[in-house]
Amino acid sequence: MNLRQAARGRECQVRIPGVCNFDPATTILAHLNGAGMGRKASDIHAALCCSACHDVADSRVQSVYTSDEVKLMFLEGIMRTQEIWLTEGRIVITK
């Protein structure tokens, strides 16, 4: 299943207060930086993220939040996104 395609038209799950544009038309599957030099995290470690939240997460736009606060909000967005994928059966946990 292509999670990047499934992200289109979805509600932002990062939801940075005072930043989020709440516009599903701008939502993509965004990856948190830090997977290593020249590497992008797996799509399972990405969040449904609007363009405004993505700009702050990638430090293209400054915000009132520290980098640690933004990272925490992004990680919470990843958890919410994973819950959506699990509920929809796009990802499956096996034992």
SSE map:
Layout (H helix, E strand, L loop, with lengths): L2 H4 L21 E4 L14 E4 L1 H7 L9 H22 L7
Antiparallel strand pairs: 1-2
3D structure, described in words:
The protein has 95 residues and is mainly α. The chain has 3 helices and 2 strands. It has a two-stranded antiparallel sheet with strand order 1-2. The longest helix has 22 residues, at 67-88.
What labels would you give this structure?
single chain; 95 residues; mainly alpha; 2 strands; 35% helix
H/E series = HEEHH
Average pLDDT works out at 93
Structural class: mainly alpha
Question: pLDDT under 50 segments (min length 5)?
Answer: none
Share in β-strands: 5-15%
User: Considering DSSP H and I runs of 4 or more, what fraction of the residues is helical?
Assistant: 25-40%
Q: What's the Cα radius of gyration?
A: 13 Å
End-to-end separation in angstroms reads: 20 Å
